[in-house]
């Protein structure tokens, strides 16, 4: 899952980025509203973490423009304790949730998962698909009730594919979702992770759609 973090505070930005990376997300960080719009126009993100008080263009303006352009990316706004009216305006402008600074990184993580879940139309916190179960909070994967050990990237890849079974994603799309700016992508990385996921789960779990990409079958 790839996140865009928009935060001008030079202390808070790297702290959030590092914390979420440890959680398995790939996180790009920008420090003003214009850079945020540029990043959103050029890259595909699964989630936007948006500070409201920003140089060059406010977070509210960024949010407003996004929704006006029918961009439905999940947005969690980060606000100061005293800015109650900003929070209300933010939610009304189309934010999915908010968090008041200072906050705990574990809470931020939990809220991101909750928003993603709602966005995917799921009420439960665990993703189940046939005999396969993936828990985004604990990073556990079970197949037929048995635990399967996956690396961080294997887990992230499986998570992305499990969000929409039956929908193929190309190698480039998968790379986009797994890697942030400046992260070196090993050549054939996606193929390597697909190969090891098939080895650990069974070949039937990930289908190759010739010329299109990879998918997890809708029914298995
Ligand atoms: Ca700020």
Notes on the structure:
The chain is an alpha/beta fold and 220 residues long. The protein has two domains: 119 residues, Rossmann fold (3-Layer(aba) Sandwich), CATH 3.40.50; 89 residues, Arc Repressor Mutant, subunit A, CATH 1.10.10. The chain contains eight helices and eleven strands. The mean pLDDT is 93. The site of calcium ion has 5 residues, from loops.
Output the keywords.
Arc Repressor Mutant, subunit A, binds calcium ion, 5-stranded parallel β-sheet, single chain, Rossmann fold, 20% strand, 2 domains, alpha/beta, 220 residues, 11 strands
- Widest sheet: strand order? 2-1-3-4-5
Number of helices: 8
Main beta-sheet annotation: 5 strands, parallel
Structural class: alpha/beta
Report the mean per-residue pLDDT as an integer.
93
N-to-C series of helices and strands: EHEHEHEHEHEEEEHHHEE
Give the number of DSSP strands.
11
Low-confidence stretches: none
CATH class of the largest domain: Alpha Beta
Q: What is the compact description of this entry?
A:
The chain has 220 residues and is of the alpha/beta class. The protein is built from 8 helices and 11 strands.
SSE arrangement:
Elements: E1 2-6, H1 12-22, E2 26-30, H2 33-42, E3 47-51, H3 59-68, E4 75-79, H4 84-92, E5 97-100, H5 105-119, E6 127-129, E7 132-135, E8 140-143, E9 146-148, H6 152-163, H7 171-178, H8 189-201, E10 207-209, E11 213-215
Parallel strand pairs: 1-2, 1-3, 3-4, 4-5
Antiparallel strand pairs: 6-7, 7-8, 8-9, 10-11
Helix pairs in contact: 2-3, 6-8
Bound molecules: calcium ion.
């Amino acid at each position: 899952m790839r996140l865009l973090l928009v935060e001008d505070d030079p202390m808070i930005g790297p702290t959030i980025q590092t914390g979420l990376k440890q959680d398995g997300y790939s996180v790009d960080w920008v420090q003003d509203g214009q850079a945020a719009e540029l990043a959103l126009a050029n890259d595909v993100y699964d989630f936007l973490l948006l500070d409201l008080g920003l140089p060059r263009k406010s977070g509210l303006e960024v949010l407003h423009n996004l929704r006006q352009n029918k961009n439905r990316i999940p947005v969690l706004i980060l606000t100061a304790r005293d800015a109650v009216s900003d929070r209300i305006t933010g939610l009304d402008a189309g934010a999915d949730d908010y968090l008041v600074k200072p906050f705990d990184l574990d809470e931020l993580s939990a809220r991101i998962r909750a928003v993603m879940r709602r966005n995917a139309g799921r009420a439960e916190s665990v993703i189940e698909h046939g005999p396969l179960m993936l828990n985004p909070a604990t990073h556990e994967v079970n197949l037929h009730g048995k635990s399967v050990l996956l690396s961080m990237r294997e887990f992230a890849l499986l998570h992305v594919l499990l969000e929409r079974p039956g929908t193929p994603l190309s190698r480039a799309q998968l790379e986009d979702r797994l890697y942030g700016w400046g992260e070196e992508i090993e050549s054939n990385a996606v193929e390597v992770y697909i190969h090891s996921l098939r080895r650990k789960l069974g070949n039937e779990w990930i289908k190759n759609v010739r010329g299109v990409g990879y998918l997890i079958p809708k029914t298995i």
